[in-house]
Amino acid sequence: MRILEKTGRTVEEAVSQALAELKLKKDEVEIEILEEPNKGIFGLFGSKNARVRVTEKPDPIKAVKKFYEKVTAQMGVKSEILVREEEDFIKMTLIGNNLGILIGRRGETLDALQYLGNLVANKHNLVERKKIILDAEGYRKRREDTLVKLAARLAERVKRTGYRVVLEPMNPQERRIIHTALQNDKRVQTYSEGEEPFRKVVIALRK
């Protein structure tokens, strides 16, 4: 967050100078008038310029993007970050080559980075506290497709054997994919059991 004090013959002039130096728009800052201009006696003696303090408003999305840029640079990875804001979440996608190190085994590193990004966003009071979704090389979509196919295959096993199936621990986002994939299946039901971070999805016959 940057703060700048400027003087000018008028408040508007002082604010304009500050905005130009900060390279920001008026709706991106908070303006505090420290001193009103004074023309003095006969406009000659004791005249005083306006003085303002212009403070950059915290931008959570910029803060998260800057955080990811710093982390990826420290990891020796060159990537571009694309941001897409949706109604319920903000998706940030890392674009580049050899991003496997950012994804990790079964997305564990990507999930950790996503968690840290949400901490940064909340620290900067993200409007409506939208969730940050972090992706790299289309991993989230590939993982979703894999989980949907896995859910269908395991559901068929449950129907065939009558025994419930307990999946490996998953994060809330991945558990939701399993639940959604089977929510319209009239023969099986899904539920979660256990405590985070070892919470698991169970697929069982409907009673």
Automatic annotation (TrEMBL):
Keywords: Cell shape, Cell wall biogenesis/degradation, Chaperone, Cytoplasm, RNA-binding
Residue span(s) of domain R3H: 141-207
InterPro entries (UniProt xref): Jag_KH, Jag_N_dom_sf, KH_dom-like_a/b, KhpB, KhpB_N, R3H_dom, R3H_dom_sf, R3H_KhpB
Pfam families the record matches: Jag_N, KH_KhpA-B, R3H
Region of interest called Jag_N domain, as start-end residue ranges on this chain: 5-55
A GO MF label: RNA binding
Gene Ontology cellular-component annotations: cytoplasm
GO biological process, one term: cell wall organization
Domain of life the protein comes from: Bacteria
PROSITE patterns cross-referenced by the UniProt entry: R3H
Chief location bin: cytoplasm
Location of this chain's protein in the cell: Cytoplasm
Summary of subunit composition and partner proteins: Forms a complex with KhpA.
Family affiliation: Belongs to the KhpB RNA-binding protein family.
Function per UniProt: A probable RNA chaperone. Forms a complex with KhpA which binds to cellular RNA and controls its expression. Plays a role in peptidoglycan (PG) homeostasis and cell length regulation.
PANTHER family for this protein: PROTEIN JAG, RNA-BINDING PROTEIN KHPB
Domain notes per entry: Has an N-terminal Jag-N domain and 2 RNA-binding domains (KH and R3H).
Name by which UniProt lists this protein: RNA-binding protein KhpB
Organism annotation: Thermanaerosceptrum fracticalcis
Gene name per UniProt: khpB
